[in-house]
Amino acid sequence: MTHNNSPKITMSAPDLTDAERQAVWEVINTPMLSIGPRIQAFEESFRRYTGCQHAIGVNSGTSGLHLCVRAAGVGMGDRVITSPFSFVSSTNVLLFENAVPVFVDVDERTGNLDPVLTAQAAADLAEGGAAAQRWLPRRGAEQSGALKALLAVDVFGQPADYDLLSPIARQHNLKLIEDSCEALGAQYKNRMAGMLGDYGVFAFYPNKQITTGEGGMIVTNDSAAAELMTALRNQGRAPGDTWLSHTYLGYNYRMDEMSAALGTAQMARIEELLVSRQRVADLYNQHLAGLPGIEIPYLAPETTRVSWFVYVIRVARGVDREALAARLAQRGIPVRPYFLPIHLQPYMVERFGYREGDFPITEDLGRRGLALPFSGKMDEEQVAYVCQGLRELL
């Protein structure tokens, strides 16, 4: 049962004002609903914000990652080192190209790729033979080819350790793709997330730091890759192609003008939105400090600024997370497990033969992670009610 006097709490909520509503209204009162000035303005806001030379708006973060994989030259049987502790899209975009994801376990504190294991995996894959075999899945990699890329994920809004990952990519001539879909506004050693690899990608689902409903943005300083990805998002139409002429096999990954207008209005408020999310995370940290049975999020010293996407605690080993979640739900407090390991998703087990125990840290984090209700619109009463529920039930 829910408590009658409890505040109403949702898992997440976008922070929208009349400025965003007006921006969308203005677009739908014009005949230009796609491939117009709003997408150009939205891309320009990212060039200014991140300092990138090229920003390419797309219809989802997944689409953006897929275009980066294409730009990196990843194809049939190629290998890409990546994380099993992520949302499935960071692996799915490799499977779209029939590439082989080579999973490396993560740092138990941050959930980001473990640089030491990553270095070892890259070296062993370069050596080949038995050394390489220990990193490959049990099946599905028999015809695998070259190691082409490293796809790192900035988990929960905290950048991976790129000063350790970048030299690995350079040493082995790999393209470094930064999945920064959860980390808009984050900084690593005072450098902007998204700009720490060859290509970076942000995403704008309604629970993200900014939202366009659905949408994503690629940022890069690689002009040739940017030209290719811009063509691929628009059915492969390259510069100079006429209306029905298509140089490449491409996709319809375009972002519409309404979404771009909404995003541009959100980017005008980006600092306000990030500060609001930081305020809520600080409230959680204060209310949960010292509570037995849970760990609050860990921030690495290299993280100059975390960009709070979700607020994920870890329950102690031995705590029944599912029972705890069910009892919180009875109090009107929605929570979610975060993340479920990619390698144990049914289609991954079927295709590659993964088993429990293959990536123990990822699996441990998957068993213990619990995302609490989180958005920049939460007030202290709501945060306190969530924390009170945790305190009483633990």
Automatic annotation (TrEMBL):
This is Polysaccharide biosynthesis protein. The modification N6-(pyridoxal phosphate)lysine is found at residue 208. GO terms for molecular function: pyridoxal phosphate binding; transaminase activity. It comes from Ornatilinea apprima. Keywords: Pyridoxal phosphate. One of its GO terms (biological process) is polysaccharide biosynthetic process. Coiled coil: none annotated. The active site is at residue 208. Pfam families: DegT_DnrJ_EryC1. The keyword NADP does not apply.
